């Protein structure tokens, strides 16, 4: 780590200043600034490039045939409901079709501590057959380059999102809805049509005052929340928004019938027109704040982009 300026350096220093500990993956060496044994190593690692080590982690992509569906959904459900979930693990669980690669399941896994294979991810690494497994110790740059290689530029695209509390029967229903929607899009040139599932675990919510404030259905025994993202890319100009909206509507209807709706929409993946603020007390309060601090409505009328309150 060389230092690294950021937009927040004026009040937070360089990126390397935010590091509180270095851990060597090949041994038990830990280095912190106050460490009586390795405090000098901590200061050397901060701003000295790769002369003493490389910041890395375990990460990669696993691809499986679509026939592993039942195993995949069960593994994701078990991971989602594990009360002792590992906070160092990040998982994106996807299923999709591709004009070039047919259909299949994809698990993108990152473990922030570069162990050979943490137990929490073994249910995914042990699934068979596996078409591709790039999971290994690597740098963030390497993983970013790999993941970017799967993206195709210059195509039509749609992204749309919903959320729900984890439920195994709903997981299977979402797969069925996605599978049926594939019949309506599969003949479009260059099509990639995928559903990606990410978790907002109770552990994340505990550490997020924001989520505690914006999710109206939270309770002491709330389960993990699944962020379900539909992504579609294709070559021809035909509109597929209707297919996407119908798929998301189907998920939300079933979630409501199963009493697992969250009342929260993850804004980073939301499509224009989706109501990211809801219709409850929070939106009314935000509208009041807008009138108080922006009485002329400059940000509502004159600033393009984003999701507007009015």
Summing up helix and strand content along with how strands pair, one would put the structural category as alpha+beta
Number of E-state strands = 10
Shape: globular
What integer value in Å does the Rg equal?
A: 22 Å
Helix % is: 25-40%
Figure out the total of helices.
11
Contiguous runs where pLDDT drops below 50 for at least 5 residues = none
Give the SSE string: HEEHEHEEHEEHEHEHHEHHH
Mean pLDDT: 86
Major beta-sheet overview: 8 strands, antiparallel
Strand content of the residues, in percent?
15-25%
- Termini gap: 44 Å
Summary keywords:
single chain, 310 residues, two-stranded antiparallel ribbon, 10 strands, 32% helix
Description:
The protein has about 300 residues and is of the alpha+beta class. The chain is about 30% helix and about 20% strand. It has 11 helices and 10 strands. Strands 3, 4, 5, 6, 7, 8, 9 and 10 form an 8-stranded antiparallel beta sheet that branches. The chain has a two-stranded antiparallel sheet with strand order 1-2. A hairpin with a 6-residue loop joins strand 1 and strand 2. Helix 6 runs antiparallel to helix 9. It is globular. The protein starts with 8 loop residues before the first helix and ends in a 9-residue tail after the last helix. The model has no long low-confidence stretch (mean pLDDT about 85).
Write the layout of secondary structure elements.
Blueprint: H1 9-12, E1 22-23, E2 30-31, H2 39-45, E3 56-65, H3 69-80, E4 89-98, E5 102-111, H4 122-125, E6 132-133, E7 136-139, H5 140-148, E8 156-165, H6 168-185, E9 192-200, H7 202-206, H8 209-214, E10 225-234, H9 241-257, H10 281-293, H11 298-301
Antiparallel strand pairs: 1-2, 3-5, 3-6, 3-7, 4-5, 4-9, 8-10, 9-10
Helix pairs in contact: 6-9
């Amino acid at each position: 780590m060389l230092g690294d300026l950021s937009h927040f350096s004026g009040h937070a220093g360089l990126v390397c200043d935010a590091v509180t500990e270095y851990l060597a993956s090949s041994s038990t060496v830990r280095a912190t600034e106050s460490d009586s044994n390795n405090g000098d190593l901590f200061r050397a690692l901060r701003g000295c490039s790769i002369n003493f080590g490389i910041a890395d982690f375990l990460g990669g992509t696993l691809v499986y045939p679509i026939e592993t569906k039942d195993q995949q959904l069960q593994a994701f459900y078990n991971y989602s409901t594990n009360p002792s979930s590992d906070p160092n693990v990040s998982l994106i669980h996807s299923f999709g079709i591709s004009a070039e690669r047919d259909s299949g399941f994809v698990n993108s896994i990152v473990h922030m501590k570069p162990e050979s294979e943490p137990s929490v991810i073994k249910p995914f690494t042990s699934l068979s057959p596996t078409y591709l497994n790039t999971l290994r110790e690597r740098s963030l740059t390497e993983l970013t380059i790999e993941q970017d290689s799967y993206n195709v530029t210059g195509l039509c695209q749609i992204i749309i999102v919903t959320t729900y509390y984890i439920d195994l029967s709903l997981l299977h229903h979402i797969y069925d809805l996605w599978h049926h929607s594939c019949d309506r899009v599969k003949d479009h040139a260059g099509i990639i049509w995928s559903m990606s599932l990410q978790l907002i675990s109770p552990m994340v919510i505990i550490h997020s005052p924001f989520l505690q404030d914006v999710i109206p259905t939270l309770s002491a025994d709330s389960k993990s929340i699944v962020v379900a993202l539909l992504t579609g890319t294709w070559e021809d100009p035909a509109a597929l928004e209707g297919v996407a909206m119908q798929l998301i509507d189907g998920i939300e209807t079933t979630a409501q019938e199963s009493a697992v709706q969250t009342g929260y929409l993850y804004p980073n993946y939301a499509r224009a027109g989706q109501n990211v603020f809801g219709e409850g007390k929070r939106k009314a309060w935000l509208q009041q704040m807008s009138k108080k601090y922006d009485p002329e409505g400059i940000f509502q009328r004159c600033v393009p982009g984003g999701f507007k309150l009015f």
